[in-house]
């Protein structure tokens, strides 16, 4: 029997398009292809953009109350049926059920933020800036906005953007990851059920060809991208060269700095949760623990002990950790363990060949702990994006801080200490966009904005929260005078206040 093919969603209906290219979508816990996904051509993207453009005039004219009503209804659907969406995430991404539900909950926060759109797009008003002259500002939508998302959060990352984009009156073309594309279609159907007019939210599946078509399209006003750093940089440069506003969030290598006075049990729990949750395939995962001596030996013992209790397997079976996304990615991550040994690090816990509660063909790699990692090693420098936690030993706070600040990424970081002064100093001195103090994964709540510094974000605008209102609207300033009959007559000078 031919595999099911997942099509695009354009104009409120399934859209097949002209492209016959497809890519496999795996169930990573079973190692089998469960469906194929259509890969759009430039012409298919053009059709989606034209549809979104046609829907824009009516949607941007829809009242704030109407837009808010749709978002509230979407929130209700998402909440009531999150188990359905969670099952899709587990089947295509592999993350365990509880983690899939957590991802949806974080997306829901942004939907809830967007429900407040009437308040969020309020302008400013200054009366009588000059005699009889008022100035005020309004925020208006951009038009068609593009969203390009990664495999690791197939529901949450699109929800970082589209609820606010839509609430602000834009229409959307989403290009989700081709590795786990079904969540996007589920959300498109849910938005339709919530009363969103057809054509406001469209999904095109694809790879580089469709991304390039979005970046080059004259009718796409902005691009919100999340993915690896090389592609984020490429998207930023090509999109801005085409005159669009672009926010492009990239990769990460997040460090946790542990001072000797920290609660080491809390540190060990946090390192295990943040290092191995979602098999380390999180942009906010902790991948390096920087231990200020003399605590490293004790920490390695506590972390290894906790790791021995972790269960790895099919995400539907109540395990702690699922598989990696593809066989190639699993092999690439496992390859770093050889590099670690060659480079002189100590492989304390080796995740290869662990027993799993799942199919033998799944893309498995167990939690791995590598101690004494040289900072010259690729294991330290590269974003591995898997369940590999590195320990680097330093002698002082200053040495740890310098290490963190010398890296190319600046997404998230954390300090663990009981010294308020040290924590405050770290918060001020660290060159990273999101900082945790005794919190390992400091993802900001929905009413703050999410984003890193340096090679973790190209552009000046973070995701969701207040930055998103700025990104998805254009501000217009209006200077208004209702003339009385005695206006000043002809004056060619530049207007002055008075
Ligand atoms: P990726 O860069 O491979 O893909 C991201 C998107 O870009 C996908 O939609 C993909 O189809 C598209 N793409 C891939 N190659 C392309 C190319 N050559 N030209 C144009 N488009 C291309 O990333 P991924 O593997 O899906 O996701 C993991 C990466 O995302 C990690 O680096 C992770 O750190 C990062 N990430 C960052 C954040 C953040 O907030 N900073 C959040 C989640 C994930």
UniProtKB/TrEMBL annotation:
One of its GO terms (molecular function) is methylmalonate-semialdehyde dehydrogenase (acylating, NAD) activity. This is methylmalonate-semialdehyde dehydrogenase (CoA acylating). Its EC number is 1.2.1.27. It is an enzyme of class 1 (oxidoreductase). It comes from the Bacteria. The keyword Signal does not apply. Residues 18-478 form the Aldehyde dehydrogenase domain. InterPro entries: Ald_DH/histidinol_DH (IPR016161), Ald_DH_C (IPR016163), Ald_DH_CS_CYS (IPR016160), Ald_DH_N (IPR016162), Aldehyde_DH_dom (IPR015590), MeMal-semiAld_DH (IPR010061). Keywords: NAD, Oxidoreductase. GO terms for biological process: L-valine catabolic process; thymine catabolic process. Pfam families: Aldedh (PF00171). It comes from Protaetiibacter intestinalis. Coiled coil: none annotated. Signal peptide: none annotated.
